[in-house]
Design brief:
Elements: H1 3-24, H2 28-50, H3 52-77, H4 80-102
Helix pairs in contact: 1-2, 1-4, 2-3, 3-4
Length: about 100
C-alpha cells in the first residue's frame, strides 16, 4: 500500500467516523452524508487502482464538492465543530488530490 492510498483510506475512515458521531448526536443526515461521502472516497480509491489519473480526478471532484459543502455549513452555523474541522480536513485532502493529480 502506497502513502497516497493510505491518505485516501484515512480520509474515508475520517468521514465514516464523522458519520458515526453525527448519528450518535441524533443527526440522521450526518449519518447518511458521512456514509455516502466515505463510500465515494473509497470508490475513488478503487478507480485509482485501475487508472491513477482518473481516480485522482474523481477524488479531486468529490473533495472539491465536500469543501464547498463544509464551507457553506461553517458560514451558516459559525461553528468550528464539526463543520470547521471537516472543512480543514477536506481542504487538505483537496490539495493533496490536486497535487497528486498534477504529478501522476
Amino acid at each position: 500500500m502506497t502513502v497516497e492510498q493510505m491518505i485516501v483510506l484515512m480520509f474515508a475512515v475520517f468521514l465514516f467516523v464523522g458519520a458515526f458521531f453525527g448519528a450518535k448526536a441524533g443527526s440522521k443526515i450526518s449519518l447518511i452524508m458521512g456514509i455516502a461521502s466515505g463510500s465515494l472516497i473509497l470508490l475513488g480509491d478503487i478507480i485509482v487502482h485501475f487508472n491513477k489519473k482518473s481516480g485522482f480526478l474523481f477524488l479531486m471532484i468529490i473533495a472539491g464538492l465536500l469543501v464547498v459543502s463544509f464551507s457553506q455549513r461553517v458560514l451558516k452555523t459559525k461553528k468550528m465543530m464539526p463543520s470547521g474541522m471537516l472543512l480543514i480536513a477536506g481542504t487538505l485532502f483537496f490539495g493533496f488530490t490536486i497535487f497528486t493529480f498534477i504529478n501522476s
